[in-house]
Structures are given as structure tokens and as C-alpha cells.
What does this fold into?
Amino acid sequence: MKHVPSKNWINGEWRGASSGETFPVTNPASDEVLARVPALSPHEVDEAITSAQVAFLSWREVPARKRSDILLAISQALLARVEDFAELITAEQGKPLSEARGEVVYSANYFRWYSEEAVRVNGDIIPADTPNKRIFVLKQPVGVVAAITPWNFPVAMLARKLGAALAAGCAFIAKPAPETPLSALALAELCAHAGVPAGVFNVITGDAEMIGSHFMSSPLVRKVTFTGSTEVGKILIRQSADTVKKLTLELGGNAPFVVFGDADIEHAVEGAIFGKYRNAGQTCICVNRFLVHDSIAHAFTERLIARSKELVVGDGSEASTQIGPLITDEAAAKVTRLIDSARREGASIPLEPTPNTRGKRFISPSVITHVTPSMSIWKEEIFGPVSAIATFATDDEAISLANSTPHGLAAYVYSNNLSRALKVSEQLEYGMVGVNDTAISSVQAPFGGIKESGFGREGSKYGIDDYLVLKYLSVTMP
Ligand code: SIN
It folds into this structure.
């Protein structure tokens, strides 16, 4: 990327913090400081919210077809700059360039999808009880939306929120994760060139807690959309009470990957490799717990070990890399802690992570067996390249083990018996289930969880509803 942004995009302008305060953004592979970005003060956050509110009043009047054209222009502009954005994502986030390119295309697809949805926000006319009465249902934009976005997909997680919000006619303020604000800032500039008016899309950086609480307490912010931990999601739910805000929460997962005795083992292992090691295991829908039927546990484990060993760990900017560094030292320490505690709690580790001369954030795949539900590695979201395997004997046991978590984001079922796969899928308490499939994310499908994995849906024909409110007109014709 030729130009790395170092200011905030507010009301159509690049702005620094008036205090001059900044914080560094570093490359997790090399520790190189890529840029310093502003640490806004509370009153600057409020100013950004106010300017978004002013912009909202005009944006909601822009005809849907025009908003649709702008969204399509954003999609096309992103596709024209896949390489630029991919390089920036890899530099600040660490994922391999091939995955970063995929993320940019995935993001562009959200803008295209929502350019198509923008023109289909249809209301309803409902038959009334009396001849001189009409009941109309209007769908209107909720207002100013604040988004708190994660570091694992710095562009895609923003794109699927922003695309829906702009399509609905909302103005939008994003606070990207402090680890990865640069691609969000670059996206803001791209959107402005594609025709998004000043103030309609803003990106601000600074102290996460302060910005989050300003979003939550501002009566002008009518909706907050968040992707991140369940812990923070619960804080946001509490903070939303005072202004009764609409929320969309994409929170943590603890995805089970259930392999029945009749599964195609080769296909299941290939699904596992993608579903476990994508983004070095740092996605909310990554497999967290393998549940394998006793009859095939040995064969599955051996094949998974063999395939895991082949994966190349390195700097994401190198073409051979399949697993990049974890995002921070803290993230790496958590993964190491979970492996160590599984060992202490009695698990076996037939594939140990190998130390990497590049540093402790570079963690190679490991495979852990004899995992039990009392172990931390079973209960916590690993967010790293560790395959933790438990076994089961009956379908009921598999379902009960799979559901034994407060989380309910994604689950995976592998079986060649369609009727078993469907019956089990119906009993899994998850918002998304992949049957013989781990590539479940797509713009057409409703992404989201149940239980402590949150609520609301992103993408698909349902995603725009989170940015709309219903108004009903009761009209009597005297
Ligand atoms: C995630 O939320 O971490 C996964 C994102 C995706 O696959 O869309």
C-alpha cells in the first residue's frame, strides 16, 4: 500500500486529535510500527457523533437507487484495489496474503450484495377492519449507527455492517480495533471517492472503553453493532439500557466439529484444516472442539496430524505462508496457557507446537487428544491453531457434548448419512451449522449466533433488518 492513513476520517476530512495524542499500529510479524493514529478526546468523539447525525438527515433522503449505485461503486473500487488492501490487512493483522486477498473480495461482495438489497426495502399494506381505513407499514433507517469492529477481519467485518447500514439509509461511525485501524481508515477514503457524502461514514480511533461508553450513552446513536468477545458484549447490553439502543452482537463461539463413524474421513480432515486453521485459528467460527466417533478417532486423528504438520507458519507477506503470527503476545500466551493446562489436566499431545525462531507469536499447529469437558481448552475459545479432540460413542452423547457450552455461534457435522446429519443439525443449539462443510461464511447467508454468542444477523436478506425500524401508519379516510 503506497499510502498508510494516520489520521481519522470524520465528516469527510482527515483529522488528528486536538491533543496531538497518538498510538502506534504495529505489524505482528515484524513489530514494525506501520503508523501512529489519533487518540481522540471525549469531546471529539461527541463531535463525530453530532456530524454523523447531521449527515444522516440528508442521507436518509437520498433515493435508494442512488445509495445502491454508491454501494456498487464501493464494491468495484475495492475489487480494483485488492492487492493494496490485502497488503495492508496482512501488514496490520498478520494473516497470509492469500487469505487477505480473499477477505477483500469477500468485503467487496458485501457491498455488492447490499447495493442489491438497498432497492428492495419494501413496506407493507395490511388490510384493515373497516372500509375507510388503511394500514401502511414503512421501513425506515434506524439513525446513526456506531460500529465496534474486531481485528481478525479488519475490512470484512466492517463491510458487512457498513454495507447494510448505508443501504438502509443510516449514517455510520466505526471504531476499529486498536490493532488494525489502518484498513478501516483506508476504506473510509475509498468510500468517499466512491460517492459516500461527508459525515455518512466516519472512522475514529482512541481509547476503546471511552469511545464505547460515548457511543452507548449518546442519545444520537440509535444502534450499536459489535463483533467481539461475549464479555464485552454483555457490558454493551448493560450500557445500552439507559438510551434503549438497538444492538447487533456477534460474540464469541465455541464451535464443535462432530465427526460420525460414517463420515468421509478425508473430506472431514480437509474441512477441519480450513475450519480450524483459517486466520491461524483466530475466527469466531473456527472449530474449537473436535468430537469424533470412537470407531474412527484413530484414523481421523492420524490424518489430521499429518495434514497439520504440512502447514507452513511464517510472515503472512511471504507467499509460502499458510499460518501467520497471532495478533499479539497476549493472544499467543493464552494459547500456550491452554495447551499447558490441557497437558496438566491429563490430555495427550501427539502433535506439539514447535518453537519458531521468529518469536512466540508464530505458533505451529498442535493436536491434543483425550480432551474432556472439564478442561479449560474445552470451555474457552482457543483462538489459535490448536486442534482439541474428544471422542463419543452415541449420537445423543455427541449432541449433548456439542451443546454443553453457553455459546451458540457455529457448529459442524460430518456424516454421509443425510438423515442423521439433518436430525443432529436440528438439535444443535447454534445459529449456523455446516453439514460436511466448514466454508459457511457467505454474503447470501445470515451470519450470527444464539445463546451467549449474541443476536442479530449480518449478510443475507435478513441483515438489513438490523438497520431498519418499522413504522405503521393508520389512515382513516373521512
Ligand atoms: C468471524 O466472525 O470471526 C468469522 C468471520 C467470517 O467468517 O465471516
